[in-house]
Amino acid sequence: MNKKGRVTIPTDDSFIKETMEIVEAWGADAIRDCDGFKLPKEIKGIAEKIYSTYFVARGDNEWANKNRDELQQTYLMTKHILATCDTLEIDIMDGYFKEQVVPDSTHDIKKFWEVIDRTIEEVVSIEDWSYDKENQKVLIKNTKPWHEYTVSFLAYCIWDPTQMYNHITNNWGDKPHDIPFNVRGKKTNEYIFKAMHKWLDEHPDTDVIRFTTFFYHFTLVFNNLAKEKFVDWFGYSSSVSAEALEAFEEEKGYRLRPEDIIDKGYYNSTFRVPSKAYLDFMDFQQKYVAENVKKLVDIVHEHGREAMMFLGDNWIGTEPYGKYFESIGLDAVVGSVGNGATLRMISDIPGVKYTEGRFLPYFFPDTFYEGNDPTIEARENWLTARRAIMRKPVDRIGYGGYLSLAYKFPKFVDYVGKVCDEFRTIYENINNTKPYCGLKVAVLNSWGKLRTWQTHMVAHALWYKQIYTYLGVIEALSGMSVDVNFISFDDVKKEGIDKDIDVILNVGDAGTAFSGGENWRDEKLVSTLREWIYNGGGFIGIGEPTAELYGGHFFQLSDALGVDKELGFSLSTDKYFKDEVEKHFITEDVKSEIDFGEGMKNVYATKESTEIICNRNGDLMLSSNDYGKGRAIYIAGLPYSTENTRILYRSLYYASHKENEMKKWYCDDMNCEVSAYLEENKYAIINNSNEEVETFVYDGEGKAQLVLMKPAEIKWIEI
């Protein structure tokens, strides 16, 4: 196998000799810069490709300061403030970091701001409030005592939040604050294209322009202590501007209210069932971003370079799975890999020549300090992502930060060298072929294809108590031998269900975009799914699936699932079905108590036909129910683990009535998995653990052989 290539490394100032050592040790063929420094000229010739970071909408404070009326903007909402008499004064910047944002009073505040009586959800008349610019306070008259009020206001962004984070983390002291500017501004829009030409002329040694990213940062607002106040990696609230709101009205035929963006202070979190107005705004921004990014990419190509997009920072509007993305013509996308789900989020992106994953840990001092072992995080990150790589690899891997920090840890340097070699081996063996998929699975939620592999994420792949129970399902699927698709409720209503789909999953808490909320009041959606399951489809509901209190049910597909949730309204109705089955296909491999994560209280069986597989303290946790020719399974929650991955895998085959087909490419030991590449006439046995494992391995004809696997080993076998 090739011992060089497909690896990108960062470097530092005055670190040429050591960089050459790492290039040799890791087989790197590309070198990149990092926020905070630029590549020295001596780096040319050390690697085949040089990546240079390029900021379209920040990093040019001279321009920003000359055009303060064309800075980026964001919508913000004040705290809920209680009125105790008929007047009220609200300090709109209370709780916000004044070095990051400043109120916009340049544009007509009566047009772009909104004061709301939150107790009755009524907009306060513009005649009843005024703004004290000097003290940054809104004065409201004719208030109703004991009602709460908020102010929604446009603000200018005066410090890019990513640079701010890097600034604080690395203690950059007096380094200038990057001021982000608004590319919808007439002068700025003309300027960014001229600046692109100029930059390319001044950087002839750069082969790949790594856009970090384009125009609009995801929603990231800091509090008055310079700590994160609100972060939504999918948020569009910092893509607004007076210019955008005016253009939206002209294009879409109606005017957005501030509340359409503020959304009661939830800022249209990805967990909210999206409104029509918000979806329209997203579409409007995606179209604009695609059209203008294409112009930048065309300029890069005109200069004979490659254009790469970083899937982070100012990525809002690009939406790699959206309908405009492929029209941009990007050469590549690079993104940060936190787990298998984020790996697949990058590797499955259509319409680019290659994808690249930036692995952890990032070479920053919060990880690379004396006494810490960064190898531990690196090993966990690699093994977690490797499952997904075996299903759909990125084309390249890399690391970010300061190489001089990593260089001080020889054990880490040695381990990453082995990772790079293993990645190249995997990539060459797979050879761009699609692995065997035993089933076709669809994840059903409000977002569908637009947010492929992004289900239940908040700030990328960070852990949250409320979501690990559900994000575990997506993580398990990322490395599983099934074909995974993401479909929306609108898809089902408009197009029906693809006949090739074996199992549909609906996963999440009631009222969220992922469970579906009010979508389940739609007769067509419910009827279409009932008919599909009844005629042989498989359905798996996890958490509070199909949940919306309506028509005498909480779970709208409770008839198919054979379970419902007690909300206290039917306590007077006896519930007789509580006995567990003695054994079941789904839990055949379970050796310890099942981890349902946060689980679910008060779910109960509604019919005698429901197979109760696990009851815990009177609460149903796992069940199955035959429904016509189909089958529906309920699971209270499923955090990521090897055992839960096996439970889900068996559930998928059981739901689809294909139990007899499960042991084709299969390992008895749940620590191991098989990926078969039939076009290449080979298959791989993967040990996902750091322990030695002995397992029976089944080939495509169901024949088994006993195999001994070393810790974290991959065995490649010719068919």
UniProtKB/TrEMBL annotation:
<feature type="domain" description="Lacto-N-biose phosphorylase-like N-terminal TIM barrel">
    <location>
        <begin position="5"/>
        <end position="437"/>
    </location>
</feature>
<dbReference type="InterPro" id="IPR029062">
    <property type="entry name" value="Class_I_gatase-like"/>
</dbReference>
<dbReference type="GO" id="GO:0004645">
    <property type="term" value="F:1,4-alpha-oligoglucan phosphorylase activity"/>
</dbReference>
<dbReference type="Pfam" id="PF17385">
    <property type="entry name" value="LBP_M"/>
</dbReference>
<feature type="domain" description="Lacto-N-biose phosphorylase C-terminal">
    <location>
        <begin position="665"/>
        <end position="717"/>
    </location>
</feature>
<dbReference type="InterPro" id="IPR013780">
    <property type="entry name" value="Glyco_hydro_b"/>
</dbReference>
<dbReference type="InterPro" id="IPR035356">
    <property type="entry name" value="LBP_C"/>
</dbReference>
<dbReference type="InterPro" id="IPR035363">
    <property type="entry name" value="LBP_M"/>
</dbReference>
<dbReference type="Pfam" id="PF17386">
    <property type="entry name" value="LBP_C"/>
</dbReference>
<dbReference type="InterPro" id="IPR012711">
    <property type="entry name" value="Lacto-N-biose_phosphorylase"/>
</dbReference>
<dbReference type="InterPro" id="IPR013783">
    <property type="entry name" value="Ig-like_fold"/>
</dbReference>
<protein>
    <submittedName>
        <fullName>1,3-beta-galactosyl-N-acetylhexosamine phosphorylase</fullName>
    </submittedName>
</protein>
<dbReference type="InterPro" id="IPR035080">
    <property type="entry name" value="Lact_bio_phlase-like_N"/>
</dbReference>
<dbReference type="Pfam" id="PF09508">
    <property type="entry name" value="Lact_bio_phlase"/>
</dbReference>
<feature type="domain" description="Lacto-N-biose phosphorylase central">
    <location>
        <begin position="440"/>
        <end position="659"/>
    </location>
</feature>
